[in-house]
Amino acid sequence: MSTIRQNKVTRLLQKEISTIFQLNSANWFPNTMVTVTVVRVSPDFSFAKVYLSVFGKMEPKECVDLITAHSKMVRGELGNRIKNQLRITPELAFYIDDSLDYAEEIDELLKK
User: Fold this and answer.
1) What is the bridge-based pairing of β-strands 91-96 and 47-56?
2) Which of 1, 12, 55, 79 is the most buried (most CB within 10 A)?
3) pLDDT tens-digit map of 68-91
4) What is the CATH number of the domain that holds 44?
5) What span, in angstroms and rounded, lies between the C-alpha atoms of 94 and 8?
6) Cα–Cα–Cα angle for 33, 38, 44, rounded to 5 degrees
7) Global pTM?
8) What is the CA radius of gyration of the chain?
9) Backbone angles phi, psi at 103, to 5 degrees
10) What percent of the chain has pLDDT over 90?
């Protein structure tokens, strides 16, 4: 169960990571839109799972691998942005958000 503080930190991280991706999207993933759909933070705020939705020319797996390669830079930039709100910057792990695919699969099964 998430606390109110965890929910606030989750929203802050989602907003700031989205901004970082928006500023670097032209260089990292041209003709592709990357959206931060969900962020889950550990109770001690030292680790965050970031789920991404990818639309465009790049494959989602390729995009996540590229972002993982730049994760130190993303974490550093995130630390600069949230240094007044959080004491430590969480470690970031990036994953593909497949909830839309799952919803489509369920929808197809229900149509049968």
Assistant:
1) parallel
2) 12
3) 999 999 999 999 999 999 999 999
4) 3.30.300.20
5) 20
6) 135
7) 0.87
8) 15
9) -65, -40
10) 71
Q: Taking 80 as the threshold, does the pLDDT of residue 2 lie above it?
A: no
Q: Residues 34-50: what's their mean pLDDT?
A: 95
Question: 53 CB contacts (<8 Å, ≥6 apart)?
Answer: 34, 35, 37, 96, 97, 100
pLDDT of residue 106: 87
Give the strands of the sheet with 32-41, arranged side by side.
32-41, 47-56, 91-96
Distance, in Å, from the CA atom of 84 to the CA atom of 87, rounded to the nearest integer, reads 8
57 phi, psi to nearest 5 deg: -75, -35
Residue with tokens 């465009």: 56
Element at 102 (helix H, strand E): helix 99-111
pLDDT of the residue at 19: 96
Backbone phi, then psi, for 98, in 5-degree steps?
-105, 20
Q: Which two tokens stand for residue 68?
A: 């993982």
Quote the number of domains for the chain. 1
